[in-house]
Design a protein that fits this description.
The chain is α+β, with helices and mostly antiparallel strands. The chain has two domains: about 210 residues, no CATH class; about 190 residues, no CATH class. Helix content is about 55%, strand content about 20%. It has 13 helices and ten strands. Strands 2-3-8-5-7-6 form a six-stranded mixed β-barrel, surrounded by four helices. Helix 11 runs antiparallel to helix 12. About 35% of the residues are buried. It comes from Mangrovimicrobium sediminis.
Length: about 425
């Protein structure tokens, strides 16, 4: 028998064994449990990976709406010629806007409420070109930082922790010392809250903004800035664009992009996705290796058939292929059903969670506690293909030992007792 004919013969008999109605009931039950386990494992893995993709996308979109694509920082006494440097940088390929900034860690105080945070001095008009903080304002305006007075715009969570609103005052202490005739004191200033922003991400709890002229007095360096914020044409090309920019700047300039300033957070999300994938893949592995017990029982049940096939000229390899196809047929039905169920769940997880909330009268994601109000989900077909390949390989591995045992059945010993 030729190799293609033997393969077709093995495939046909393997399918007959998988879906025959004359099988032992207990063997059929074990096979059904194996398929259901595969369905649940594959569907869970696809759904959870899609939800984690959604979380990562939400986190990236919200944080990077506030954080510029890149930074150019000057060493020493700061960047005094920042206007000229900004024009030079904006003329370079891939860069469409820049904005000056000064930033430092400070302590915000209101009565007994005391919290650390980051205070950044900006030019509101230039800032609107490199970030979307203007669109994130929930009260007040960013333009108020250009008005006379010592004005402050801060994140909604930070405002809630300090128990302040529009028009309230906040004492800001900077870790810089001021020398006076009475001694050395930390630099502090009372600022008036004129705006509150909310991006739905961690910066809401620590970030605040003041106008650039006030920042030069409070944070220093006077008449200079710490550096320039950079907005590129393509967010994901920003690392390459900033790297190329760094090669055209003086040696004492430092260039960073968002993957460096926020990289630890996104690496943590990526690592969490990998670990959750491995944990859920163990469910698929358990379901796949349940196929071992199904095939072992099937081999014991089909010993007579194996003996007859061997006496009719079937080779050991053909017998092995029969039971490999037998196990893979069961696995592929489970994997295919799991993919369909997983894709449906991933595409409709938000609708399902809203239905559950309405049905049970509970709020799964309280906006006052979480940065999101519903489960985000982004289905990536690359993840689906990876899950299918992993499940198929585990199933194939699970079929090898029972198929090998079937190929070693001795026809003479079986037929002696028939």
């Amino acid at each position: 028998m030729s190799a293609p004919a033997a393969a077709g013969f093995a495939w046909f008999i393997g399918l007959r064994y998988s879906f025959s109605r004359k099988r032992n009931r207990f063997t059929s039950l074990i096979a059904l449990v194996s398929m259901l386990g595969m369905v649940i494992g594959v569907a869970s893995l696809i759904t959870v990976l899609s939800v984690m993709n959604g979380f990562a996308g939400e986190l990236r979109g919200r944080i990077l709406s506030l954080v510029p694509h890149g930074f150019v920082e000057a060493g020493g006494e700061g960047m005094s010629d920042w206007q000229q440097r900004a024009r030079e940088i904006e003329a370079m390929p891939g860069i469409n806007a820049t904005a000056p900034y000064i930033t430092d860690k400070v302590i915000f105080v209101n009565g007994r409420s005391l919290h650390g945070g980051v205070l950044t001095a900006i030019d509101p008009q230039q800032e609107a070109r490199v970030s979307r903080v203007t669109h994130a304002l929930r009260a007040g305006s960013l333009a108020s930082l250009e008005e006379p007075g010592f004005n402050l715009v801060l994140g909604s969570v930070l405002a809630r922790m300090l128990n302040v609103g529009i028009g309230d005052s906040v004492e800001v202490t900077v870790p810089r010392l001021t020398v006076t005739p009475l001694g050395v004191f930390p630099r502090s200033k009372r600022l008036t809250v004129t705006g509150i922003f909310e991006v739905g991400a961690p910066p809401d709890g620590y970030q605040a903004f003041i106008g650039l002229p006030i920042g030069q007095k409070l944070l220093g360096p006077r008449h200079a800035v710490d550096g320039l914020q950079v907005h590129t044409d393509d967010l994901f090309a920003a690392p390459d664009i900033m790297r190329a920019l760094g090669q055209n700047l003086p040696a004492d300039y430092r260039v960073r992009d968002w993957s460096q300033t926020q990289g630890s957070l996104f690496r943590a999300v990526k690592m969490e996705k990998i670990m959750v994938s491995l944990l859920l893949l163990s469910v698929v592995a358990v379901a796949a290796f349940n196929i071992v017990s199904t095939l072992v029982m099937s081999v014991a049940e089909k010993r007579g058939d194996i003996a007859v096939l061997r006496t009719m000229g079937a080779r050991a390899g053909s017998i092995m292929l029969i039971f490999i196809w037998h196990g893979l047929a069961l696995a592929l039905v489970g994997v295919a059903s799991g993919v369909v169920l997983g894709v449906l769940l991933a595409e409709n997880i938000s609708t399902i969670t809203r239905f559950a909330e309405n049905l049970f009268g509970v709020k799964l994601f309280d906006p006052s506690v979480y940065f999101i109000t519903e489960l985000p989900s982004v289905l990536q077909w690359g993840d689906v293909i990876a899950v299918v390949i992993a499940a198929f390989l585990l199933s194939l591995l699970a079929t090898l030992y029972p198929a090998w045992r079937a190929a070693r059945v001795a026809p003479a010993e079986v037929l002696r007792y028939e």
